[in-house]
Design a protein that fits this description.
It is built from 4 helices and 8 strands. A hairpin with a 3-residue loop joins β4 and β5. The longest helix is centred in the C-terminal third of the chain and has 22 residues.
């Protein structure tokens, strides 16, 4: 009987993770951020492109200003800012990011093209080699930066994924 319950639980876990899907996560290793490929089963590339445009318009006050370039049904490049993403040396920093989203049937790919940190509106490009020790561990002073970058990128993908899959749509029955 216990074996049946274990098999049932494992089956539901497998089904939940693979049929219903979940948002993938970025990882940073020695400053290397690999592009993230996110599955969105049952969606065509033009639909994913359209939903991405909607998401940008929904999440940015001036969507036209944040979209750097766009090729219909193939790619969107946008820039955003995450305020107060990390604290170091007594200062609170903002993160400016440029992301490229590319579209294929049932999936999209997020590529981080540029990251800059800033304070009081002055931004500088990241030089990840400054943030890591030779053994690959983040330096103590910059650990919040690495965590903040991962959180920003993962939250961004989670938001896009939720919008695409309808998990953020509210009932509008007013």
């Amino acid at each position: 009987m216990k074996l049946n319950y274990i098999i049932l639980i494992l089956s539901l876990t497998f089904i939940n993770g693979n049929v219903f899907g979940q948002a993938e996560k970025f990882g940073i290793k020695n400053g290397d951020i690999e592009p993230l490929v996110q599955s969105v089963n049952g969606m065509k590339s033009d639909s994913i492109y359209s939903k991405s445009n909607e998401w940008i318009n929904y999440n940015f006050k001036k969507a036209d200003a944040v979209i750097g370039s766009s090729i219909d049904n193939k790619m969107i490049r946008f820039t955003g800012i995450n305020p107060n993403f990390a604290k170091s040396f007594g200062y609170i920093y903002d993160l400016e990011f440029t992301i490229r989203i590319e579209f294929k049937e049932n999936r999209y790919r997020l590529t981080v093209e540029n990251l800059r940190s800033g304070n009081n509106g002055i931004f500088a490009n990241f030089n990840f080699s400054d943030y890591y020790k030779s053994n690959g561990e983040p330096r103590k002073a910059y650990k919040d930066f690495v965590i903040g970058i991962e959180n920003t990128l993962n939250n961004l993908n989670q938001s896009i994924y939720n919008y695409m899959t309808g998990k953020t749509e509210k009932k509008d029955d007013w």
